[in-house]
């Protein structure tokens, strides 16, 4: 076959580094060109970064074409979104959470070194932090009920009695301000705590009071020592709950706020 005739199959030389391309004939398709790059772990990063760069170029050229010379165009939302996407795609795969699959969106803040770009584009977690609830606490280390709320000896017993030895620590059931700390006829040594919202608790018949009026106490903080003072027939802790100045059944009230002592 002559040199001037049609090029024969033996005259086609393949590119050494890219055997799918031919010299002197035609350019291989882009699909064949990109297939090595899209293989394995490079697929996700190449596709996203490539799209981001191409999109950013198109947006930039369109914006520049419509602007008078000498003015710097302000970055559009599209450019910001593309930049955030490119930054997200540039994170190494080994930095992703262990349970994240390929192509899955990664929540903002879950990747070390992540910038605020994700948050600025609205891709943030809907979960918000909440303050921990303050809980009601038992007024004694060991709870044994010896007398209930209701009629007793021809009059209403406005609280509930808990068995306690003289000197046992008595604790505030809930945070509040000490409204009364001293002697009260019938109650003996009495501590009254104002918890706000019209709620008060009473701790009576104490042998000793360890707080003073106007003092703030936390739930579970010791306020007194159990005893047998006032109108009492044995060492115990008499406990009352008042709502807007009226005594209510203490065990039911405590149960309604999450503390069941029955």
UniProtKB/TrEMBL annotation:
One family name in Pfam for this protein: Peptidase_M23
Domain of life: Bacteria
Domain M23ase beta-sheet core: 156-250
Stretches the record annotates as Disordered: 1-28
Coiled-coil boundaries: none
SUPFAM superfamilies in UniProt: Duplicated hybrid motif
Listed Basic residues bias regions: 12-26
MF-aspect GO terms: metalloendopeptidase activity
CDD domains on file: M23_peptidase (cd12797)
UniProt signal peptide: none
Protein name (database record): Peptidase M23-like protein
Species in which this protein is naturally found: Glycomyces artemisiae
